[in-house]
Amino acid sequence: QWSNVLCSATAPSVCEVSSRAPTVAAPSHKEYWLSGYPASWDDARAKCRSTGGDLAVIHNAENEERVRAACGSWERDNLCWVGLRTAPMSRTFRWVDGVDVAAYSNWRDGEPNNSASDGGAEECGAVLPASFGGGWNDAACSVEFLFVCEYDTDVSTAPTSVEETQLIKRV
Ligand code: MMA
Ligand code: CA
């Protein structure tokens, strides 16, 4: 049976490790969608997941190039949220598919800096479009940026229209 105890108590622990390493889908199996409207990291991820995808993950230069192209493809150049986050206080960034950021990373010089300038802890990752020089930045998860979702082309449920993009563009 279970019991609740102080989190600071010491006890043996049991870890669960996947027997299958997270696979990196071939670039040809990924389809990207740019939101066209800004949202917090949590709202962005919820949108991607509710449409059958997830926030884009970047595991190689080709993913990087395609995600950055999607991010910079809209007239309002902006940082774009991607599926990169650290647990509170840990500063160990991890992709939403479980891959450690150390496997491939492209932080901008000086990042991740956990800057206090946007209101405290910077625990979510965003890409900068080429017009800003590229690279990644850690930012507060509550900041609203555009975001890039990815979908598996084999079972793609990516939003087929750019309605939301156009709606925002007209504003
Ligand atoms: C902003 C913010 C930070 C980033 C710095 C880089 C001023 O703060 O986006 O997350 O590290 O810019 O200068
Ligand atoms: Ca930062």
Short key terms for the protein model shown above:
171 residues; alpha+beta; disordered C terminus
Task: Walk me through this protein's architecture.
- With 171 residues, this protein is an alpha+beta fold.
- It contains 3 helices and 7 strands, in the order E-H-E-H-E-E-E-E-E-H.
- Strands 1, 2, 3, 4, 5, 6 and 7 form a 7-stranded mixed sheet that branches.
- Strand 3 (80-86) and strand 4 form a beta hairpin.
- The model is unreliable at 19-25 and 162-171 (pLDDT under 50).
- Calcium ion is lined by residues 111-113, 115, 122, 137-139.
- Methyl alpha-D-mannopyranoside (MMA) binds at residues 111, 113, 115, 117-118, 122, 137-139.
Bound molecules: methyl alpha-D-mannopyranoside, calcium ion
- Give the number of helices: 3
The radius of gyration is 17 Å
Sequence of secondary-structure elements:
EHEHEEEEEH
Structure classification: alpha+beta
Proportion in helices: 10-25%
Span of the ends, CA to CA: 57 Å
Regions with little confidence, pLDDT below 50 for 5+ residues: 19-25, 162-171
> If you average the pLDDT, what whole number results?
83
Give the overall silhouette: globular
Multimeric organization: single chain
| Proportion of strand residues | 15-25%
Total number of beta strands: 7
Largest sheet: 7 strands, mixed
In short:
By secondary structure, the protein is α+β, with helices and mostly antiparallel strands.
How are the elements arranged and paired?
Layout: E1 30-34, H1 41-50, E2 54-55, H2 61-71, E3 80-86, E4 93-95, E5 124-127, E6 136-139, E7 146-152, H3 163-170
Parallel strand pairs: 3-7
Antiparallel strand pairs: 1-7, 2-7, 3-4, 3-5, 5-6
